[in-house]
Specification:
It contains 13 helices and no strands. The chain has 243 residues and is an all-alpha fold.
Length: 243
């Protein structure tokens, strides 16, 4: 119950972070697409390598900060950023830097969505009846599995996987753990592609970004998806037998 002596925040104030993110995403799509592109990385690769060699720690910090901004504001170029992490820092520790930046950015947009809409939307879903309530209860009962699934399935957009948990009252620590661990397989794949960009640049080609759908890559990821879904299947079977 709300304390009448406590000041209430205007709904618009609570939504300001989400409004800022939406505005930044639109402006970024219009003005930054040419700067956060494979061509920009190719044309500036020598300058980036020279700066990294002279200022390694600063480059790492600047790279992670840039990745956080790209994810938090849903700017174009997350895939290029991942490739850049591999190009500058090799598969490891490049994958670690990519996962760290992506996780921090995801947490920021998760918190903005929860602060702006999550609490009220979660309360409405909890108080609803029928199919909507059953769906929410099903997700609540299998949060860990669902969180890992939406991270592992390549077809789920990253920003969707950031927003949905915020609206379903997922605890922050679960979101952080499932995001960090769940994006590792895909991050390692694309970081390894970035690590080989030197040869790609030398041949005048573009990287194969569809590599994650190659059978030798996709099948292990689908195996992880099935493993994450196993608790849901077991619960469903047990419930059916109990009925």
């Amino acid at each position: 119950m709300t304390n009448p002596t406590e000041p209430t925040q205007h709904p618009l104030l609570r939504r300001l972070p989400l409004i800022a993110i939406a505005a930044a995403a639109v402006l970024g799509a219009i003005y930054l697409r040419d700067y956060l592109s494979f061509e920009a990385l190719r044309d500036n690769r020598e300058a980036l390598i020279a700066f990294r060699d002279a200022n390694y720690v600063l480059t790492v910090l600047a790279f992670i900060a840039a990745y956080v901004v790209i994810v938090a504001f849903s700017l174009p170029g997350a895939t290029i950023a991942t490739l850049t992490g591999g190009f500058l820092f090799a598969t490891f520790p490049g994958a670690l830097f990519n996962v760290t930046g992506a996780t921090i950015g995801a947490v920021l947009i998760f918190l903005a969505a929860r602060w702006g809409l999550g609490d009220r939307l979660g309360a409405k879903l909890e108080g609803s009846d029928g199919a909507v309530k059953r769906i929410k209860d099903g997700i609540d009962e299998n949060q860990w599995s669902m969180l890992f699934l939406i991270r592992l399935v390549p077809a789920v957009p990253f920003f969707v996987a950031n927003l949905v948990p915020a609206f379903l009252e997922v605890p922050l620590y679960r979101f952080v753990v499932s995001t960090f661990l769940g994006i590792i397989p895909g991050a390692v794949v694309y970081t390894s592609v970035g690590a080989g960009l030197g040869e790609v640049f030398a041949r005048g080609e573009t990287p194969n970004l569809g590599i994650i759908f190659e059978p030798h890559i996709l099948l292990p990821i689908l195996g992880l998806c099935l493993l994450a879904a196993l608790p849901i299947v077991i619960k469903a079977v047990s419930a059916r037998k109990g009925a």
